[in-house]
Amino acid sequence: MRIIKNRTGNKVSKPLRILSLLRGRWDGQRQPALQALADIGHEVVYVDQILNLAGYRKLVNKIRFDVAVLWGNSLENLLRSFWGDFFLEEAGIPYVSLWTDNPIKHQFLLKKINTSLHKAMFVADTCVINQLKILGWKNVFYLPPWHIDETIFKPVKPSSDFACKISFAATINSYKAERSKWREGWNMKMHKAADSIIRKCHKYKDYVDVFNNLGNDWDAGSLEFNKLSHALYFEQKALAREQIIQSVGERELHIVGIGSATTDRSNVIMHEGRNWDDLSPLFCSSEINLNLTPWPKSCHHRVFQITASGAFTLTDWREDSLELFEPNEEVVYFKSMEELPELIDRFSRFTEERTRIATAGYRRFLSEHTVSHRMAELSAKLYELL
User: Fold this and answer.
1) Separation between Cα atoms, residue 25 and residue 101, nearest integer Å
2) CA quadruple 283, 377, 142, 76: dihedral positive or negative?
3) Do 378 and 261 have their domain in common?
4) What residues have CB less than 8 Å from 144, skipping those under 6 apart?
């Protein structure tokens, strides 16, 4: 356990004592948000070791916390680890959850903490927020990707090791492998429902929202829907990556990321993955950085990472994105896979236009979308909620 140091000397009239708990694989990516809260003037206690239930209970009963700020994946893992009453509920400590994935697929676990102490869920997608309200959640608020630190993702000198026209930072696994991994033990009804989504994904060559398509026939709080949603997230991700490789055609494409998939396409060059905090050299060395978004409307966090690096982004069209980065001025969007080849060729030719857009995207990120901006929003909301 440690207290995050305030680097700025800023003070607030009523600082909050904030608890945050490590319980997820990607917590390191979220830690800049805790630093930003400390720099505002709050007292932030970060439990950066995994404890047993007795350890957590002892901590929350010993120290008076005003609120706990939990990352969605850590909250999910806490609920999976300890069945029964949630220990923050037992201790009477208010808490909020911030999500970087879709909480709809976790309703099997989350439904038991739709309580007065779970003060808010902060979600990066307005469609998902409406879905959560349909499911009975009241305090759900929109917060676009909130953890991108401009000291980590930033313009750097291009590297000859990554110099290329088109890059795609992504995990690549085969659809067959993902289907086999996540569908073990399914009944025929579950297979039929999942296959209906996959057919639409093939047809439209885009993400198909599971709740919008299956929510009328399945209980979103059931274990079966949880398994369906989880599997279809990975199956659709695998299909989308296959589709983008096909759409690029014979153009040389450099893929950087973990994954087991292989390809016999000579124009597709597979590179080893890089640490999450060391992607700016790839972004800054690529003329065009591709992105795909597994949300109904959200702007994917990769768009913020690329623009923070001062690099050019070509990403799929999502309605929430348009308020965050202006189309063709700060980021370029493709509305369908069919549009992708022409846009790649256009921006491969016109270097000045590509540079202008990348520069504008970088300025927009710095002026509105850093982790400090988002945590200032969160801080103001916490005072309202508490």
Assistant:
1) 13
2) positive
3) no
4) 124, 298, 299, 320, 324, 369, 374
**Any bridge partners for residue 43, and if so which?**
17
CA 157/CA 269 separation, integer angstroms: 22
- Beta bridge partners of residue 18, listed in sequence order: 44, 67
Are residue 289 and residue 319 in the same domain, yes or no? yes
Sheet holding 268-271, edge to edge: 268-271, 253-256, 164-169, 286-291, 313-316, 332-334
Work out how many domains the chain is built from and give that number.
2
pTM of the predicted structure, to 2 decimals: 0.96
366-378 pLDDT per residue, tens: 999 999 999 999 9
The CATH number covering residue 224 comes to 3.40.50.2000
**Residue written as tokens 């795909």?**
292
Distances (CA, A) of 373 to 44, 361, 364, 376: 17, 16, 12, 5
Nearest CA to 178 out of 233, 244, 246 is that of: 233
Residue 212's pLDDT band, with cuts at 50, 70 and 90, is: very high
6, HSE (Cβ side, Cα atoms, 13 Å): 15
For residue 202, give the nearest of 246, 256, 241, 239 by alpha carbon: 239
Can you give the residue range of the structural domain that contains 44?
2-147+371-385
Q: Quick count: other Cβ atoms within 10 Å of Cβ 54?
A: 9
- Say whether both 329 and 363 belong to one domain: yes
pLDDT tens digits, one per residue of 72-113: 999 999 999 998 999 999 999 999 999 999 999 999 999 999
3-state secondary structure 331-385: EEEECCHHHHHHHHHHHHHCHHHHHHHHHHHHHHHHHHCCHHHHHHHHHHHHHHH
